[in-house]
Amino acid sequence: MDEEAILPHRFKPLSEGSLLAAIDIGSNSFHLIIARLEHGELKPIETLAEKVQLGADLRRGRLSNDAIERGLDCLSRFSQLLAITELARIRVVGTNALRQAKNRRAFTEPAERILNVPVDVVYGREEARLVYLGVAHTLADDETSRLVIDIGGGSTEFIIGQRFEPLRLESLQIGCVSYAQDHFPKGVMSKKNYQAAYDRALVEVSHIKKQFRARHWAEAVGSSGTLQAIETLICTAGWRTQGIDRNSLEKLRKRLLKFNAACDIEMEGLNENRRQVITAGVAITQAIFDGLEIDTLRVSPGALREGVLYDLIGRLTHEDVRERTVTALLARYGVDEANAEIVGNRVCWLAEKVDDEWALDESDKELLRWSGRCHEIGLAISQKNFNRHSAYLLENSDLPGFAQREQELMSILVHGQQGKIKSALFDAVPKSQLQKVKRMVALLRIAAVLKYVEIHEDLPDFSVQTDAERLVFSLPKDWRELHPLTTWELQQSTSALAKLGVTLEFN
């Protein structure tokens, strides 16, 4: 089997002038960026930002209907600009509000229909990694160790890194929208409310103080809207020419608390969209400064959306961080990499044979290959029910580069590789994707059976034919007679495959 013929090749090579696009679906604002690749650098040609407050009224863990409508209306406007960019070169990322929302599908499914691309909800540490990537490309390429902070609407990300490599990542449930709602109800301003917000943030920051305080880095850098807004207010007031320090933060706190309500705040440089959340943002920033022993912080124009673009370049040029992640995962759990590659390659080969009839795209094949490589990581826990252990590890580990949706799908695939197929396995799969996911489980299940032969010898040349519900294997009869165990295991799989909507036949 020719490995090069098996590995998925998703995209055309990126050429000079290629357009890439990213949308950051934040808890407070949505951001769109379209950039052109020029001499290895990204040059923004279109940027849009809208205050949506998707995370408003999320206290019960559900997006409100009003918030969903605001978000979808915004994406409809964004979609007009996306028409100039190939769909394969667009990535949409959702952050804390979608992570927390139990009804996220009520937003993501219509959003995907509007944009024609997946909405990738990312875990907190993956968000932090992408933020760092966006910031790192705006800074000097030197050996300076940096603390990067991104205060969002629902969470705050902390990263220590050097050059383009994040070394420590953390995400805390601290956000200017959630804090504004909790501590400044209806925009009411007071020293008491401010102190409560500060104290709460300080407690949260204390959980990471040991790993992120000043002795672990040489420079502090801020990213995204909240810290940019604070810097603008400080510089406009004449307290500094750039950046943020303790003294200027305290002056800003005193100035803000002279107002009785958020709607009354009048300061030069304050955007109307920030009026309701700026005081909560300052309280959070002061707590971070005090908790992590920060004296000064400079603000970078780079943010999550830029990080998404640079990460996308890696995916498009076969420098996908997900490959490194999978390789590291196999090493962590002591997986036999040769055996892992056998299953990964075989399931990809099977997918290539059926992709036309079963409508599998290149991203599906990639996830199948990674799932195949990771199918036995659960053996590090126990041989019994190792498929369940593999599934748990894939769904609950921090896997740089992977979206929440991708981890959930890989977990389903490896869980279904053996044992009974229960309908509950697919509870998290949208109805529109259910048939495809079941077919993918069927392919991995077959590849897992065939591996026991492929570990010791090459499989004979055989063909695979398919229609909507059938897989027909043309395995030589004499080979089947010489391999009774494999033949029996394939036959035993037919009932499980039938529950997946697939009939396995031999000729």
Gist?
The chain is α/β, with parallel strands linked by helices and 507 residues long. The protein has 20 helices and 14 strands. It has helices spanning 3-6, 65-82, 96-100, 105-115, 124-136, 176-183, 191-206, 209-212, 224-236, 246-256, 278-292, 304-316, 321-332, 337-358, 362-373, 386-396, 404-415, 431-454, 477-482, 484-499, and strands at residues 19-25, 29-38, 41-51, 90-94, 119-121, 145-151, 156-162, 165-172, 219-223, 244-245, 296-299, 464-466, 470-473, 503-506.
Blueprint of the fold:
Elements (H helix, E strand, L loop, with lengths): L2 H4 L12 E7 L3 E10 L2 E11 L13 H18 L7 E5 L1 H5 L4 H11 L3 E3 L2 H13 L8 E7 L4 E7 L2 E8 L3 H8 L7 H16 L2 H4 L6 E5 H13 L7 E2 H11 L21 H15 L3 E4 L4 H13 L4 H12 L4 H22 L3 H12 L12 H11 L7 H12 L15 H24 L9 E3 L3 E4 L3 H6 L1 H16 L3 E4 L1
Parallel strand pairs: 1-4, 4-5, 6-9, 9-11, 13-14
Antiparallel strand pairs: 1-2, 2-3, 6-7, 7-8, 10-11, 12-13
Helix pairs in contact: 2-4, 5-12, 6-7, 6-11, 7-11, 9-11, 10-11, 14-15, 14-18, 15-17, 15-18, 16-17, 17-18, 18-20
